[in-house]
Amino acid sequence: MASTTYYVKASLDAAQKFAVCQYFKNEEGTDPVPEGEALTISKTAPSCTVNLIQSPELLLIGVVYKTLGNEPVLTAGNFQPASNDNSVEIRMPTDKIVTKGVVLMFSNSGGSVECLYPSDDPQVKNDAE
Fold first, then answer.
1. 122 pLDDT more than 60
2. Which one of 14, 42, 64, 66 is least enclosed by Cβ atoms within 10 Å?
3. Residue 27, pLDDT score
């Protein structure tokens, strides 16, 4: 059965404007998701969870996601704040196969927010057996 949980390591890019992310299938960060490959979950899974692997410079504060191929609008249903343990859930339908574009939102760690850093655009697809 496919996992419903993935892990992300994040750091700032050279210009310090974006979060550069690597995705993993395990909490230790030793089983990477190949570059450009979607994070896949079972069609029956209602969500995909992404957990931040400890990062000294960034905190995971939320996620924005949208089903690809639909109208380009965002609603409150397309955003989820991160939990206190630096994880986010991307809600998925269980009655059809879809691909969602995802942007993880990060903030600087410690103290007050100085800037928001979006991730690149991983995709989540619910077509795994």
1. yes
2. 14
3. 93
